[in-house]
Specification:
The complex is a heterodimer of chains A (197) and B (460). Helices cover 25% and strands 34% of the residues of chain A. Chain A has helices at residues 3-6, 18-27, 41-59, 63-67, 98-109; strands at 70-78, 94-96, 121-132, 139-152, 155-170, 173-183, 190-191. The longest helix of chain A is centred in the N-terminal third of the chain and has 19 residues, at 41-59. Chain A is globular and about 45 Å long. In chain A, 35% of the residues are buried. Chain B is an alpha+beta fold. Chain B folds into 2 domains: 52-165, Rieske Iron-sulfur Protein (3-layer Sandwich), CATH 2.102.10; 175-447, Naphthalene 1,2-dioxygenase Alpha Subunit, Chain A, domain 1 (Alpha-Beta Complex), CATH 3.90.380.10. In chain B, a hairpin with a 2-residue loop joins strand 19 (333-341) and strand 20 (344-353). In chain B, helix 10 (292-303) runs antiparallel to helix 11 (306-312). The longest helix of chain B has 36 residues, at 363-398. In chain B, 50% of the residues are buried. The chains are: A alpha+beta (197), B alpha+beta (460).
Chain lengths: 197, 460
């Protein structure tokens, strides 16, 4: 039996292969095209609802519930350059697979993550949600703008940018199979970048 | 090349600002060296100018006419490679009215035109032309003083570009001295003995730059400041498979790892002796990273024992090579400390990738190893450094209390037989001692007191 079938992506990382990266790069390139834009209000509302739910779970620090919005094999990607770059040859601010995403949550839950002790309070605004159908029935790309007001260490700051969600339909349910977070200041020095975006 | 000596690099004071001996004692330092903006102002010339400062890596400007912007202290710098390949550190400051002439962070250009009045400079710093030159009594392009200022001494060591304004500083190689050896080893473990800079994790903290340098070889903070990281990277491990920096957890003073002061403010922490076997030993303690099991299984199946050497190229080299005042090589990172203000600093963790210089790896292995190397490098800035900088900020906050004056650097101090001076003059002790802090701050004090020969130069 292939290890890929027998192993749990929360414990071992077999799915992050060169092919996986190539597919990710392809899916996150050349997709924001008016011709691919989904006009169906029901589908648009579904995506908006998912993004709003995600924002609420993160604002309420319900990380474990947030993780259930993702497919088992997933990616959480914050590029360090505005163009997104090739994560195989370019350091990202973050590039997490399922296990590392769970590491991220685990660390915040240890009580010893000093960068989040006490935890930031956040209010996320999601807007300009657009859906694109790139030719796969079980896949949609969603673009949204975000503005996260973060209260930490006595002051409120804003983290802003746009996100790309790759949604996949798994057993009838749309889940996030990859999230790319594009911070406006992704290539600049950022103070305490320790909340989940 | 014409030199312009700079006689008043800092605001003139009627008397020296401080008696530096009162602020820096053998085993403790005064809070003012972190909290006084006037001390910071002097540092920006006496340290960031008075000694060799890391400016950039040659792989960031590989081609003729490439440029990158940077800083020397607070000075905006434009590091250029000219048509012939020569590297200069130009002041990014129009010689006319002071405007920065380049606002892009990197690119390729033979010349730079000032956006304000259109003065045009070659990437050598030479003034090429000004609009309506007849309005000037003489031909400006014939007068050196209108060429861009540049750092008078720029030298590279194996790709690392340094600059100093101090004509009295020793040559770079002499200044680096014994720290060259660990730099060589750090480079030589990679194919062709070279690395390529490939973007960065960029952090900023509200604290003095020395808080980062104080931490750069600190083996004492690891299990406390990084408790969440060590818990996270060992959440699936048992005693036999402990990951990352777990070896710090039990009697770290007794372990074979060590700290070594290398002179001129440089120091080195070598954790490699803690590892069991050299080949594959690095990979064995590597934390869990995206793609790890896939790549290791693929390589082990195809290459057998040789796979361990390949995997070690993706592993984090367990050394901290700290080149005073602003460069730290650790894991596979080129970390740079960049002062912003007396209480604000950028800590930039440049990632490095490898090239298949001699064709020994092949395209497929190179791609897999570099991808994995990116993921190993993202681990520490995400789960470790964020907690350190949170602590640096809280030090700065604690130091706001004026009456509680001292910060201690006395771990290992005064214990007979604990610290040894070797034949080459380097000083060696346990990895958890603060000996490197005591030694580098002595060099800091020497530079703050020093009579410098500060100059800029202009292209003839």
């Amino acid at each position: 039996m292939s290890p890929h079938a027998s192993n749990d992506p929360s414990r071992v990382s077999y799915y992050v292969t060169n092919e996986y990266y190539l597919e990710l790069i392809a899916d996150f390139s050349d997709w924001q095209d008016d011709a691919l834009s989904v006009v169906d209000p029901a589908e648009r509302d579904l995506a908006r609802r998912l993004l709003e739910q995600e924002a609420r779970l993160l604002d309420r620090l319900l990380y474990e519930e947030w993780l259930t919005l993702f497919t088992r094999e997933c990616a959480y990607w914050i590029p360090s350059t505005p163009e997104g770059g090739d994560p195989r040859t370019e350091i990202a601010i973050s590039f997490d697979d399922r296990r590392r995403l769970e590491d991220r949550v685990f660390r915040l839950r240890t009580g010893y993550a000093w960068s989040q002790a006490p935890a930031s309070r956040t209010a996320r605004m999601i807007s300009n949600v657009e859906i694109f159908d790139c030719g796969r029935d079980d896949q949609r790309m969603v673009r949204s703008n975000f503005s996260i007001s973060e209260f930490w260490d006595g002051e409120i700051r804003v983290l802003a940018g746009w996100a790309a969600h790759r949604l996949r339909k798994i057993e009838g349910v749309w889940k996030i199979s990859a999230k790319q977070v594009n911070l406006l200041n992704c290539d600049q020095c950022i103070r305490n970048p320790s909340i989940i975006l | 090349m014409p030199l312009e000596r700079v006689k008043a690099p800092v605001r003139r004071h009627n008397a020296p600002l401080y008696n530096w001996d009162e602020l820096v004692e053998e085993d403790r330092v005064h809070r003012l060296i972190y909290t006084d903006p006037a001390v910071f102002e002097i540092e920006m010339t006496h340290i960031f100018g008075g000694t060799w400062v890391y400016l950039a890596h040659e792989s960031q400007i590989p081609n003729p006419n490439d440029f990158i912007t940077g800083k020397l202290g607070l000075r905006p710098i434009l590091i250029t490679r000219d048509e012939e390949g020569r590297i200069r550190a130009l002041y990014n400051r129009c010689s006319h009215r002071g405007t920065t002439i380049c606002r892009w962070e990197k690119g390729n250009s033979r010349s730079f035109q000032c956006p304000y009045h259109g003065w045009n400079f070659a990437n050598t710093g030479k003034l090429r032309g000004v609009p309506w030159p007849d309005g000037y009594a003489s031909k400006l392009v014939r007068d050196d003083k209108y060429n861009l200022a540049q750092v008078p001494r720029v030298e590279s060591y194996r790709g690392f570009i340094f600059g100093t304004l101090n004509l009295a500083a020793p040559p770079l190689l002499q200044h680096l001295g014994p720290i060259k050896k660990p730099i060589d080893e750090w480079l030589d473990r990679n194919p062709g003995g070279k690395v390529i800079v490939c973007e960065a994790n960029r952090l900023r903290y509200k604290g003095n730059w020395k808080l980062a340098y104080d931490n750069s070889g600190d083996g004492y903070h690891v299990v406390f400041s990084h408790r969440s990281l060590i818990m996270t990277e060992n959440r699936f491990a048992d005693e036999a498979t402990q990951k990352g920096m777990s070896y710090y957890q039990n009697s770290p003073d007794e372990l074979p790892m060590y700290c070594q002061y290398m002179g001129n403010g440089h120091h080195y922490k070598d954790k490699r002796p803690n590892l069991q076997a050299r080949t594959g030993g690095l990979w064995a303690i590597e934390s869990l990273h995206p793609g790890m099991e896939h790549v290791q299984e693929k390589l082990r199946t195809k290459y057998g024992e040789r796979a361990e050497q390949m995997l070690d190229l993706a592993g984090s080299e367990p050394v901290n090579i700290n080149v005073f005042p602003n460069l730290s090589l650790l894991g596979n990172h080129i970390q740079v400390f960049q002062p912003v203000a007396f209480d604000e600093t950028d800590a930039i963790w440049f990632g490095t990738k490898i090239e298949d210089v001699d064709g020994a790896l092949g395209e497929e292995v190179l791609t897999d190893i570099n991808a994995l190397r990116m993921r190993t490098q993202e681990g520490f800035p995400n789960f470790g450094e964020v907690d350190d900088v949170a602590n640096f900020e809280q030090i700065q906050r604690g130091l706001a209390a004026p009456e509680d004056e001292w910060i201690y650097m006395n771990r290992g101090y005064g214990i007979p037989g604990r610290i040894h001076t070797l034949d080459d003059g380097t000083i060696k002790g346990p990895a958890t001692d603060e000996l490197f802090m005591r030694e580098y701050i002595r060099e800091w004090k020497r530079l703050m007191k020093a009579d410098l020969d500060i100059a800029i130069q202009r292209e003839p």
